[in-house]
Design goal:
mainly beta, about 10% helix, 8-stranded antiparallel barrel
C-alpha cells in the first residue's frame, strides 16, 4: 500500500493561521485614539451669498457618544447654541429652534456638515427659517484651532 503525504504539514498550518490573524486584524475596530473627533474650537467664515463674517464655533461632547453641542459666536455679535450628532466625519443638525439675542429673532435651524480629520477643516451648511417663513442658507467654512 502506498503511503499518503500529510498535506497539513507545519508549513500549511502556519500559512492558514497567519491568514486568519491578518484577516482578524484588518476587520477589527479602530482604537479610541484613531476615532474621529469633532470636539474643539473652529475659526472660519460664515457666508451667505456675497456676505461673509468671521465665526468661531466651540464644539463640546453631548450627552451621548454621538451628540455634540455647538456654540457659535459671529463677528457681528450673534451667539447661539445648536445640538447635533456625529457619525464618522459627518455632522447632522436636526431641526431646532434657536434664539439670537443680538438680532432679537428666533429661527428654526437645521444643517449638515463634514470634517476632514487630517486637516481639521470643517464645513457646515445651515438652513435658517425665520418666524415669517423667510429661508436663509448659510455656510461655515473653518479650521480647528484648538
Amino acid at each position: 500500500m502506498k503511503k499518503m503525504k500529510n498535506i497539513w504539514g507545519s508549513g500549511a498550518i502556519l500559512i492558514i493561521v497567519t491568514s486568519l490573524l491578518v484577516t482578524m486584524a484588518v476587520s477589527c475596530k479602530k482604537s479610541d485614539s484613531e476615532k474621529i473627533t469633532f470636539t474643539g474650537t473652529y475659526f472660519g467664515t460664515l457666508t451667505m451669498g456675497f456676505y461673509s463674517e468671521a465665526d468661531t464655533i466651540a464644539i463640546t461632547a453631548g450627552s451621548t457618544s454621538t451628540a455634540v453641542v455647538m456654540t457659535s459666536q459671529t463677528e457681528a455679535g450673534s451667539t447661539f447654541t445648536l445640538n447635533g450628532t456625529v457619525d464618522g466625519t459627518n455632522l447632522t443638525i436636526p431641526e431646532q429652534s434657536v434664539y439670537d439675542s443680538h438680532l432679537n429673532e428666533t429661527y428654526t435651524v437645521s444643517g449638515t456638515g463634514t470634517l476632514d480629520n487630517q486637516t481639521g477643516s470643517l464645513i457646515i451648511n445651515y438652513k435658517y427659517v425665520t418666524s415669517s417663513s423667510s429661508i436663509y442658507y448659510w455656510q461655515f467654512n473653518g479650521i480647528k484651532i484648538i
